[in-house]
Design goal:
single chain; about 375 residues; alpha+beta; tt1808, chain A; 3 domains; 6 strands; about 50% helix; disordered C terminus
Length: about 375
Amino acid sequence: MTNQQTERLQRFVEYAQKLKGDEKGEAQVFCDRLFQAFGHAGYKEAGATLEDRQFRKGKKVKFIDLLWKPRLILEMKSRKEDLRDHYQQAFEYWLHSVPHRPQYVVLCNFDEFWIYEFDEQMEEPMDRVRVADLLERYDALNFLFPAAKKPRFGNNRVAVTRSAADKLAVVFNSILRRTKDREQSQLFILQCLVAIVSEDVGLLPKGMFQELLDECDEASKSYDLIGNLFKQMNTERRAQGGRYKDVPYFNGGLFQKTDPVELNSGETLLLMHAAEEDWSKVQPAIFGSLFQSSMDKKERHAHGAHFTSEADIQKVVLPTIVRPFRRRLEGADTLKELVALREAIQHFRVLDPHVAAGISYTLPIASCRELTKT
Protein backbone atom coordinates (compact mmCIF):
# COMPACT_ATOMS: atom_id res chain seq x y z
CA MET A 1 0.00 0.00 0.00
CA THR A 2 1.35 3.45 -0.92
CA ASN A 3 1.84 6.31 1.53
CA GLN A 4 -1.06 8.15 -0.09
CA GLN A 5 -3.40 5.18 0.42
CA THR A 6 -2.25 4.88 4.04
CA GLU A 7 -2.94 8.56 4.67
CA ARG A 8 -6.43 8.31 3.16
CA LEU A 9 -7.34 5.32 5.33
CA GLN A 10 -5.88 7.00 8.42
CA ARG A 11 -7.96 10.13 7.81
CA PHE A 12 -11.09 8.03 7.44
CA VAL A 13 -10.45 6.13 10.68
CA GLU A 14 -9.90 9.39 12.57
CA TYR A 15 -13.03 10.92 11.03
CA ALA A 16 -15.21 7.86 11.82
CA GLN A 17 -14.16 7.95 15.47
CA LYS A 18 -15.51 11.51 15.78
CA LEU A 19 -19.00 10.55 14.61
CA LYS A 20 -21.84 9.85 17.02
CA GLY A 21 -22.86 6.85 14.95
CA ASP A 22 -26.33 8.04 14.03
CA GLU A 23 -27.75 5.95 11.17
CA LYS A 24 -30.14 8.63 9.95
CA GLY A 25 -27.85 11.64 10.22
CA GLU A 26 -24.37 10.35 9.51
CA ALA A 27 -24.59 7.14 7.43
CA GLN A 28 -24.44 8.84 4.04
CA VAL A 29 -21.39 10.96 4.77
CA PHE A 30 -19.73 7.88 6.33
CA CYS A 31 -20.29 5.97 3.07
CA ASP A 32 -18.92 8.83 0.98
CA ARG A 33 -15.79 9.15 3.14
CA LEU A 34 -15.30 5.37 2.99
CA PHE A 35 -15.22 5.48 -0.81
CA GLN A 36 -12.76 8.37 -0.68
CA ALA A 37 -10.55 6.37 1.68
CA PHE A 38 -10.28 3.63 -0.97
CA GLY A 39 -9.28 6.02 -3.73
CA HIS A 40 -12.55 7.25 -5.24
CA ALA A 41 -13.59 10.89 -5.54
CA GLY A 42 -16.76 9.81 -3.73
CA TYR A 43 -19.55 7.21 -3.87
CA LYS A 44 -21.37 8.97 -6.72
CA GLU A 45 -18.26 9.24 -8.87
CA ALA A 46 -17.71 5.51 -8.30
CA GLY A 47 -21.20 4.81 -9.65
CA ALA A 48 -22.88 3.85 -6.37
CA THR A 49 -26.36 4.92 -5.28
CA LEU A 50 -27.57 5.95 -1.83
CA GLU A 51 -31.06 5.04 -0.61
CA ASP A 52 -31.64 2.89 -3.67
CA ARG A 53 -35.32 1.95 -3.98
CA GLN A 54 -36.10 -1.75 -4.13
CA PHE A 55 -39.57 -2.44 -5.52
CA ARG A 56 -41.35 -5.71 -4.92
CA LYS A 57 -44.83 -6.52 -6.19
CA GLY A 58 -47.38 -6.02 -3.44
CA LYS A 59 -44.69 -5.04 -0.93
CA LYS A 60 -43.65 -1.81 0.71
CA VAL A 61 -40.75 -0.08 -1.05
CA LYS A 62 -37.42 -0.80 0.66
CA PHE A 63 -34.38 1.47 0.63
CA ILE A 64 -30.86 0.04 0.42
CA ASP A 65 -28.41 2.40 2.13
CA LEU A 66 -25.78 1.99 -0.60
CA LEU A 67 -25.95 -0.07 -3.78
CA TRP A 68 -22.92 -0.43 -6.05
CA LYS A 69 -23.58 -3.04 -8.71
CA PRO A 70 -22.15 -5.54 -9.30
CA ARG A 71 -19.85 -5.23 -6.30
CA LEU A 72 -21.52 -4.14 -3.09
CA ILE A 73 -24.54 -3.63 -0.89
CA LEU A 74 -23.64 -1.60 2.19
CA GLU A 75 -26.25 -1.45 4.93
CA MET A 76 -25.61 0.99 7.77
CA LYS A 77 -26.87 0.69 11.35
CA SER A 78 -26.42 2.94 14.35
CA ARG A 79 -23.43 2.56 16.64
CA LYS A 80 -23.82 -0.19 19.25
CA GLU A 81 -26.42 -1.98 17.08
CA ASP A 82 -25.99 -5.76 17.10
CA LEU A 83 -25.36 -6.56 13.44
CA ARG A 84 -26.62 -10.13 13.89
CA ASP A 85 -30.14 -8.72 14.17
CA HIS A 86 -29.92 -7.36 10.61
CA TYR A 87 -28.59 -10.42 8.81
CA GLN A 88 -31.96 -11.40 7.32
CA GLN A 89 -32.64 -7.87 6.07
CA ALA A 90 -29.26 -7.73 4.33
CA PHE A 91 -29.74 -11.17 2.80
CA GLU A 92 -33.14 -10.26 1.37
CA TYR A 93 -31.81 -7.01 -0.08
CA TRP A 94 -29.13 -9.05 -1.81
CA LEU A 95 -31.58 -11.72 -2.98
CA HIS A 96 -33.79 -9.17 -4.73
CA SER A 97 -31.02 -7.00 -6.18
CA VAL A 98 -31.31 -8.41 -9.67
CA PRO A 99 -30.05 -8.24 -12.33
CA HIS A 100 -26.30 -7.98 -11.62
CA ARG A 101 -26.65 -8.99 -7.98
CA PRO A 102 -23.67 -7.60 -5.99
CA GLN A 103 -20.99 -10.06 -4.98
CA TYR A 104 -20.47 -8.63 -1.48
CA VAL A 105 -22.81 -7.44 1.26
CA VAL A 106 -21.46 -5.40 4.18
CA LEU A 107 -23.24 -4.60 7.44
CA CYS A 108 -21.70 -1.70 9.36
CA ASN A 109 -22.48 0.02 12.67
CA PHE A 110 -19.77 2.72 12.42
CA ASP A 111 -17.44 0.57 14.54
CA GLU A 112 -17.32 -2.70 12.61
CA PHE A 113 -17.71 -4.11 9.11
CA TRP A 114 -19.31 -7.55 8.72
CA ILE A 115 -18.51 -8.76 5.22
CA TYR A 116 -20.67 -11.40 3.53
CA GLU A 117 -20.39 -13.26 0.23
CA PHE A 118 -23.69 -15.14 0.15
CA ASP A 119 -22.96 -17.15 -2.97
CA GLU A 120 -20.08 -18.74 -1.09
CA GLN A 121 -20.94 -18.65 2.62
CA MET A 122 -24.37 -18.05 4.06
CA GLU A 123 -24.46 -17.99 7.83
CA GLU A 124 -21.12 -16.58 8.92
CA PRO A 125 -19.46 -13.40 7.63
CA MET A 126 -16.37 -13.95 5.54
CA ASP A 127 -14.73 -11.51 7.93
CA ARG A 128 -15.36 -8.99 10.69
CA VAL A 129 -13.18 -5.89 10.56
CA ARG A 130 -13.15 -3.12 13.15
CA VAL A 131 -13.00 0.39 11.70
CA ALA A 132 -10.20 1.17 14.15
CA ASP A 133 -8.16 -1.70 12.63
CA LEU A 134 -8.72 -0.69 9.02
CA LEU A 135 -5.07 0.25 8.40
CA GLU A 136 -4.01 -3.31 9.20
CA ARG A 137 -7.11 -5.11 7.88
CA TYR A 138 -8.08 -3.07 4.81
CA ASP A 139 -7.35 -6.03 2.51
CA ALA A 140 -10.62 -7.67 3.60
CA LEU A 141 -12.29 -4.76 1.75
CA ASN A 142 -10.05 -4.93 -1.33
CA PHE A 143 -13.13 -4.96 -3.54
CA LEU A 144 -13.69 -1.27 -2.65
CA PHE A 145 -10.64 -0.08 -4.59
CA PRO A 146 -11.32 1.44 -8.04
CA ALA A 147 -9.44 -1.50 -9.57
CA ALA A 148 -10.93 -4.26 -7.43
CA LYS A 149 -8.55 -6.72 -5.82
CA LYS A 150 -9.30 -10.13 -4.37
CA PRO A 151 -10.14 -9.67 -0.68
CA ARG A 152 -8.26 -11.55 2.00
CA PHE A 153 -10.76 -12.85 4.51
CA GLY A 154 -10.05 -14.11 8.01
CA ASN A 155 -13.10 -16.40 8.31
CA ASN A 156 -13.25 -17.88 4.84
CA ARG A 157 -14.93 -21.21 5.43
CA VAL A 158 -15.08 -21.73 1.69
CA ALA A 159 -11.29 -21.97 1.42
CA VAL A 160 -11.08 -24.40 4.34
CA THR A 161 -13.95 -26.46 2.94
CA ARG A 162 -12.39 -26.69 -0.51
CA SER A 163 -9.05 -27.70 0.95
CA ALA A 164 -10.62 -30.46 3.03
CA ALA A 165 -12.93 -31.61 0.24
CA ASP A 166 -10.11 -31.71 -2.30
CA LYS A 167 -8.12 -34.12 -0.12
CA LEU A 168 -11.10 -36.43 0.31
CA ALA A 169 -11.91 -36.25 -3.40
CA VAL A 170 -8.33 -37.30 -4.30
CA VAL A 171 -8.62 -40.28 -1.94
CA PHE A 172 -12.00 -41.22 -3.43
CA ASN A 173 -10.69 -41.14 -6.99
CA SER A 174 -7.58 -43.09 -6.01
CA ILE A 175 -9.64 -45.86 -4.38
CA LEU A 176 -12.02 -45.92 -7.36
CA ARG A 177 -9.17 -46.34 -9.84
CA ARG A 178 -7.87 -49.34 -7.90
CA THR A 179 -11.12 -51.06 -6.96
CA LYS A 180 -13.33 -50.08 -9.93
CA ASP A 181 -16.16 -50.14 -7.37
CA ARG A 182 -17.86 -46.75 -7.26
CA GLU A 183 -20.44 -47.69 -4.61
CA GLN A 184 -17.79 -49.01 -2.24
CA SER A 185 -15.58 -45.96 -2.78
CA GLN A 186 -18.48 -43.57 -2.17
CA LEU A 187 -19.60 -45.30 0.98
CA PHE A 188 -16.12 -45.56 2.46
CA ILE A 189 -15.17 -41.92 1.84
CA LEU A 190 -18.47 -40.61 3.25
CA GLN A 191 -18.01 -42.80 6.34
CA CYS A 192 -14.50 -41.36 6.72
CA LEU A 193 -15.95 -37.85 6.43
CA VAL A 194 -18.48 -38.49 9.21
CA ALA A 195 -15.77 -39.98 11.43
CA ILE A 196 -13.50 -36.95 10.91
CA VAL A 197 -16.29 -34.47 11.68
CA SER A 198 -17.45 -36.55 14.66
CA GLU A 199 -14.07 -36.10 16.32
CA ASP A 200 -14.38 -32.31 16.20
CA VAL A 201 -17.95 -32.23 17.51
CA GLY A 202 -17.33 -34.70 20.34
CA LEU A 203 -19.21 -37.74 19.00
CA LEU A 204 -15.99 -39.74 18.76
CA PRO A 205 -13.04 -39.58 21.16
CA LYS A 206 -10.76 -36.74 20.12
CA GLY A 207 -7.99 -37.88 17.80
CA MET A 208 -9.22 -41.48 17.51
CA PHE A 209 -9.54 -41.54 13.72
CA GLN A 210 -6.17 -39.86 13.27
CA GLU A 211 -4.55 -42.32 15.66
CA LEU A 212 -5.97 -45.26 13.71
CA LEU A 213 -4.66 -43.80 10.46
CA ASP A 214 -1.26 -43.29 12.05
CA GLU A 215 -1.06 -47.03 12.71
CA CYS A 216 -2.00 -47.95 9.15
CA ASP A 217 1.54 -48.54 7.89
CA GLU A 218 0.26 -51.58 5.99
CA ALA A 219 -2.82 -51.88 3.77
CA SER A 220 -4.15 -54.83 5.78
CA LYS A 221 -4.10 -52.76 8.97
CA SER A 222 -6.28 -50.04 7.44
CA TYR A 223 -8.81 -52.70 6.38
CA ASP A 224 -9.08 -53.96 9.96
CA LEU A 225 -8.62 -50.77 12.02
CA ILE A 226 -10.91 -48.44 10.03
CA GLY A 227 -13.35 -51.19 9.09
CA ASN A 228 -13.82 -52.24 12.73
CA LEU A 229 -14.34 -48.61 13.77
CA PHE A 230 -17.20 -48.27 11.28
CA LYS A 231 -18.71 -51.59 12.43
CA GLN A 232 -18.64 -50.40 16.05
CA MET A 233 -20.26 -47.11 15.05
CA ASN A 234 -23.19 -49.19 13.78
CA THR A 235 -23.40 -51.41 16.90
CA GLU A 236 -26.00 -50.52 19.54
CA ARG A 237 -24.16 -52.32 22.33
CA ARG A 238 -20.96 -50.52 23.21
CA ALA A 239 -17.71 -52.45 23.26
CA GLN A 240 -16.95 -53.62 26.80
CA GLY A 241 -13.23 -53.12 26.35
CA GLY A 242 -10.50 -52.52 23.84
CA ARG A 243 -9.80 -49.47 21.70
CA TYR A 244 -13.41 -49.02 20.56
CA LYS A 245 -15.04 -49.02 24.00
CA ASP A 246 -15.76 -45.28 23.91
CA VAL A 247 -17.33 -45.33 20.43
CA PRO A 248 -21.09 -44.60 20.60
CA TYR A 249 -23.79 -46.06 18.38
CA PHE A 250 -24.43 -43.95 15.28
CA ASN A 251 -28.13 -44.38 14.70
CA GLY A 252 -28.32 -43.75 10.96
CA GLY A 253 -28.26 -45.47 7.62
CA LEU A 254 -24.74 -44.54 6.57
CA PHE A 255 -23.03 -47.22 8.69
CA GLN A 256 -25.60 -50.00 8.24
CA LYS A 257 -23.31 -51.40 5.59
CA THR A 258 -19.53 -51.48 6.01
CA ASP A 259 -17.28 -52.38 3.12
CA PRO A 260 -13.67 -51.85 4.33
CA VAL A 261 -10.89 -50.74 2.01
CA GLU A 262 -7.18 -51.47 2.06
CA LEU A 263 -5.59 -48.04 1.82
CA ASN A 264 -2.24 -47.45 0.20
CA SER A 265 0.28 -45.16 1.90
CA GLY A 266 -0.64 -42.12 -0.21
CA GLU A 267 -4.35 -42.47 0.58
CA THR A 268 -3.63 -42.89 4.28
CA LEU A 269 -1.46 -39.77 4.31
CA LEU A 270 -4.11 -37.68 2.52
CA LEU A 271 -6.80 -38.83 4.96
CA MET A 272 -4.52 -37.84 7.84
CA HIS A 273 -4.04 -34.37 6.32
CA ALA A 274 -7.81 -34.06 5.82
CA ALA A 275 -8.41 -34.99 9.46
CA GLU A 276 -5.98 -32.26 10.54
CA GLU A 277 -8.06 -29.52 8.86
CA ASP A 278 -10.06 -27.14 11.07
CA TRP A 279 -13.40 -28.88 10.62
CA SER A 280 -15.10 -26.31 12.86
CA LYS A 281 -14.86 -24.00 9.83
CA VAL A 282 -15.97 -26.52 7.24
CA GLN A 283 -19.37 -25.76 5.74
CA PRO A 284 -22.04 -28.47 6.14
CA ALA A 285 -22.62 -28.11 2.40
CA ILE A 286 -19.54 -30.28 1.92
CA PHE A 287 -21.73 -33.34 2.53
CA GLY A 288 -23.99 -32.59 -0.42
CA SER A 289 -21.34 -31.32 -2.79
CA LEU A 290 -18.94 -34.18 -2.00
CA PHE A 291 -21.65 -36.78 -2.57
CA GLN A 292 -22.61 -35.19 -5.88
CA SER A 293 -19.00 -34.95 -7.07
CA SER A 294 -18.46 -38.63 -6.26
CA MET A 295 -21.12 -39.63 -8.81
CA ASP A 296 -20.47 -39.67 -12.52
CA LYS A 297 -22.72 -37.65 -14.84
CA LYS A 298 -24.76 -40.66 -15.96
CA GLU A 299 -25.38 -41.77 -12.37
CA ARG A 300 -26.40 -38.25 -11.25
CA HIS A 301 -28.87 -38.06 -14.12
CA ALA A 302 -30.34 -41.49 -13.33
CA HIS A 303 -30.94 -40.61 -9.68
CA GLY A 304 -31.81 -36.94 -10.23
CA ALA A 305 -29.08 -36.11 -7.72
CA HIS A 306 -28.17 -32.46 -7.57
CA PHE A 307 -26.80 -30.45 -4.66
CA THR A 308 -28.62 -27.13 -4.26
CA SER A 309 -26.84 -24.27 -2.51
CA GLU A 310 -28.45 -22.69 0.55
CA ALA A 311 -28.74 -19.36 -1.27
CA ASP A 312 -30.87 -21.04 -3.94
CA ILE A 313 -32.92 -22.88 -1.31
CA GLN A 314 -33.69 -19.58 0.41
CA LYS A 315 -35.23 -18.28 -2.83
CA VAL A 316 -37.97 -20.87 -2.27
CA VAL A 317 -38.03 -21.04 1.53
CA LEU A 318 -38.37 -17.28 2.16
CA PRO A 319 -41.55 -16.58 0.15
CA THR A 320 -43.28 -19.90 0.87
CA ILE A 321 -42.40 -20.54 4.52
CA VAL A 322 -40.57 -17.73 6.31
CA ARG A 323 -42.55 -14.70 5.19
CA PRO A 324 -46.02 -16.26 5.79
CA PHE A 325 -44.95 -17.27 9.30
CA ARG A 326 -43.41 -13.83 9.86
CA ARG A 327 -46.69 -12.14 8.88
CA ARG A 328 -48.52 -14.34 11.38
CA LEU A 329 -45.94 -13.43 14.02
CA GLU A 330 -46.35 -9.71 13.37
CA GLY A 331 -50.15 -10.06 13.56
CA ALA A 332 -50.20 -12.08 16.80
CA ASP A 333 -51.53 -9.91 19.65
CA THR A 334 -52.08 -12.41 22.44
CA LEU A 335 -50.05 -15.03 24.28
CA LYS A 336 -52.48 -17.68 23.05
CA GLU A 337 -51.81 -16.71 19.43
CA LEU A 338 -48.03 -16.76 19.98
CA VAL A 339 -48.15 -20.22 21.61
CA ALA A 340 -50.28 -21.52 18.75
CA LEU A 341 -47.81 -20.08 16.24
CA ARG A 342 -44.88 -21.74 18.02
CA GLU A 343 -46.72 -25.06 17.84
CA ALA A 344 -47.35 -24.53 14.13
CA ILE A 345 -43.66 -23.85 13.47
CA GLN A 346 -42.55 -26.87 15.49
CA HIS A 347 -44.87 -29.22 13.60
CA PHE A 348 -44.49 -27.71 10.15
CA ARG A 349 -43.81 -30.37 7.51
CA VAL A 350 -42.51 -30.12 3.96
CA LEU A 351 -43.18 -32.74 1.31
CA ASP A 352 -40.15 -33.92 -0.63
CA PRO A 353 -41.53 -34.95 -4.05
CA HIS A 354 -38.48 -37.16 -4.70
CA VAL A 355 -39.45 -39.42 -1.81
CA ALA A 356 -42.49 -41.66 -1.80
CA ALA A 357 -43.65 -40.32 1.56
CA GLY A 358 -43.35 -36.82 2.98
CA ILE A 359 -40.51 -36.19 5.42
CA SER A 360 -40.02 -33.43 7.93
CA TYR A 361 -37.44 -30.72 7.41
CA THR A 362 -36.21 -28.23 9.92
CA LEU A 363 -36.17 -24.68 8.65
CA PRO A 364 -32.76 -23.22 7.68
CA ILE A 365 -30.91 -21.78 10.67
CA ALA A 366 -31.16 -18.19 9.47
CA SER A 367 -34.89 -18.56 8.89
CA CYS A 368 -35.54 -20.05 12.34
CA ARG A 369 -33.55 -17.26 13.95
CA GLU A 370 -35.60 -14.64 12.15
CA LEU A 371 -38.93 -16.30 13.03
CA THR A 372 -38.13 -16.78 16.73
CA LYS A 373 -36.23 -13.55 17.33
CA THR A 374 -38.94 -12.22 19.65
